[in-house]
Here is the input.
Amino acid sequence: MLRALILALLLLVFALPISSNAQGIHDHEHPKVLVLHSYHVGLPWTDSLQEGLLSGLGEQVAHTNLYIEYLDALRFPKNSESEENAFAHELKKRFGSVDIDILVATDDPAYNFLLVHRDRLWPGKPLLFAGVNNIRPENLEGLPLVAGVAESPDFLANLRLMQKLHPAIERLVVVGDATKTFTSNLEALQKANDQLVKPFVLEPITRRTVSEVLSALRLAQGDFLVFLMGRPRDDRGNFLDGPSMAKYLSQQTDKPIYSAWSFFLGRGIVGGKVVSGHEQGSELAGLITRLLNKEPFTQLPRLIESPNRYIFDARELSRFRLSERALPADRLILNRSPELWEAYPKIFVSAIALLIILLILISLQASLMRTKRRSAQAVERELILMQTFMNAIPFPVFYKGMDFVYKRLNSAFTHFAGKSEQEILGQTVSAVAAGPIAELCSGKDVELLAHGGQQVYETKLRDAAGVMHEVVFHKALVRLADGQVDGIVGAIVDISESRAQIVRLGLYESMFEHAAAAIVVTDAENRIVVSNPAMLRMSGYSLSELVGQNPRILASGQTTPATYEAMWKELLVQGVWQGELIERRKDGSTYPKYTVISVVRDADNDIVNFIATYTDITQQKVAEDGFRYLAMHDSLTGLPNRGNLGNHLEQVCAQARRSGKRAAVLFIDLDRFKMVNDSLGHHIGDAMLVEVARRIRSVLRESDFVARLGGDEFIAVLTELDSAIDATPAAQKILRSISEPFHLHGNLLHSSPSIGISVYPDDSDNAQDMLKHSDIAMYAAKEKGRNMVQFFTPAMNQAAQSRIALEHDLRMAISKRQFVLVYQPKVESCGGRVIGAEALIRWPTSPQGNISPAIFIPLVEDMGLIGALGAWVLEEACRQLALWNRRGGPALNMAINLSAQQLHDDKLADFVAALLQTHGLPASQIELEITESTAMSDPMRAIEQLGRLRNVGVTLAIDDFGTGYSSLAYLKDLPIQTLKLDRSFVQNIETNQSDAAISLATLALAHSLKLKVVAEGIETVGQANFLRENGCDLMQGYYFGRPESAEKWPEHWLNGS
Here is the structure.
């Protein structure tokens, strides 16, 4: 009997036919889903979103017509309404006749595009989104049928993670770009940092290009971490993808780099709690599936929180000796070296299978060699050995007697049933299975005994853990040597995974039939075996006309032989080729198609098939021609743009190198152009830029090249020059042309350019440095007074490096609050009593020595940090004034300077009012000063903002009066109480009649407007006497006292004497 049982088990091990017939998918009208990606295919973020979306949809893809389009907003930005409308028109042409059921957008550009154009193109259709930055529930109010997945980086979690892993490091260098998204994220990062018990010292690096970022990073000294938040463009203005940016960064620093975005991972980033495109796509797929399953839109969540997760790179963890035990428990580790069993699973599985077979064969051989007369001890050994064999089989195996009770089980059976061997042996199937399953198995046992042979059937079983499995029962009768049936041996094989594979095969077949892309499969001899319906529609041939033919039947003769030669070479070597071919339809018309061909090989590495997918790119080619022009030209002026300039400069350098001639780059920047935009509006500013472009073009030769970099920056490239000085006439023509008045929409405007020139090969030997050096020279022209031409010199380069270093030091100073305030007394002209002080900022700890505010304040404004610094000055001055008030004595007034940026802040008045309340100060003790040029750059705005401040109760003053270009019509409307006479008029007031006359006129004007006058910069008794005798109200200068810190202020000043 034992021999028969072993034979039956062996039969089951070798002859388990795991197969089943998949249920056919009911054919019905497939819903139509249009997916619009913001960016291009091949971008890691977009590809990751796409993978998550398709993976999440799973089998639903086979039942859905999925149309996927790309806005391509990074490479070809739709910067104008006309460009956006052109793309919408193209979509209308392609999908106007398609009844789209669901619209899907990924990332901000596609989402905003569909919000604008949905009602015109597909009215009433639901819009789902993913990857939209920092969107909140209130943003969806008033938007019908819109729902999706937010992209919100978890900055606080990342900051806490970095502090946990690097507790001794206090500085965090934040690498970003010049986009609005980065600015918004930086503000969110700063707010999160403020929530830490011990905040990081944040040092943002924001530059337009990667090389500028890397230069600034190299200047950073000491211990710090890097947090990567942006992707600056390369020096040609081209978009840089995440992995490339991470690679450049990691090559330039030996510091740990973290990020909150998954697309930076894998190229030198330690990791972080990241926004994952795959997770975003998967969540989005869930929303799509719910709509496809007829769930009402109202039951969908309007906004799903960003599904962020902790992901780390094992290589970087090892590089910085960071323990995985310190990481969050739910982390995912990339690039970990696999264990041996993970790397070679098939070898291990095969080894185990061979071991089981070998043991069974040895047992069988030993059993056959035994004599018929065996001792009880020998039989017992055989039974133990047989049980061992059964336990080695990885799936449940059992042996039943003729009474249908279990006599033998293996450990896999007891594990699946969740009961011990003692609980099952001697029992029937009803002891281990539910009623319907028990009835099925019992009936099958009776059927097997009645008919003999073997038995195979499928059913579903729930294991001890409650998990449902699709299984196949394989049963056979056990016969003794005399042929008598002794029982039933059986095995239970889990086919859940196999069934899933079968379903996937059906899915692939359905995808083949319904794919939008054309597909052709050929055999090893390159004869067409099958084509899908999309290919038949594209080519115009029927399937019978194509099968057996060589794909050259589709050739137009317009694709070059070199292309085919390269295609076959790459196919045979690499196994895949992709590119463009020009093909011919059955009707003779030709069309371009994007082709991807893959080689299929068998286990012996012999070619079995070629699989080709085709996409008709006719419309794309037409659009590309337009987009290519738009991509290489400025949409406002029609001039070549930055990308076009980069290519042209490379050619110019090569041509000059060959000819021995010189070439020059003229960097042209309009002076004070921002005032035009701010005061008259962008439509006037745009009109001026168009006219400037026309004027530059009109004064240069046909062979000269003119481009617009952006904003008010233009480039002219001059070629075939004999010497550097030959660039001067052209530069002077441009200078004179732009300095002529502009008549724009009824406005008479004046402007001037600052022009920097670099010459090849005198100043640089490559295009990148030519552009950089001309930029440096242009800034030198501005610093020398604007409206002039400057040639580049090496000293300017040093100055530019010094500026970068100074910017770095300023960021550190602002973050560490290294600035201090000093206070200069203001005295009454009559009597000399100290009535107040002006708060003046100083930077005593500057690494570059004593730097005047006249130098570092404009730089802080250019860096966009004046708002934070100005707020600190207001806060600190109010705090100090409150301390003086508490000590008693006469109440002093405090004058505080405001920047132009602060004056444009709508929350300024509220901020000042809050400070007054916090420090318990009367509003009348605060005087806020703005410069004349600040007020007159946008008079109406100044009147409005100063009116709000006046309503708070503070006093207002115009500083540096007489140095700007005030309009008296506006001046009388400004709600000010004080004019400050600039020191440039005061210093020569005793010897220069013009300065004396201007001072007297200012005093008369101010008093006629009932304004007080403060004269600043008084250093001599003669100056003081002149102003006192002519009615000046208040005076200030070294003659009365130098600016001092609050601690050093003399006691008699505080007492008003």
Remarks:
- The chain is about 45% helix and 20% strand.
- Residues 1-28, 339-374 have pLDDT under 50 and may be disordered.
- The radius of gyration is 40 Å.
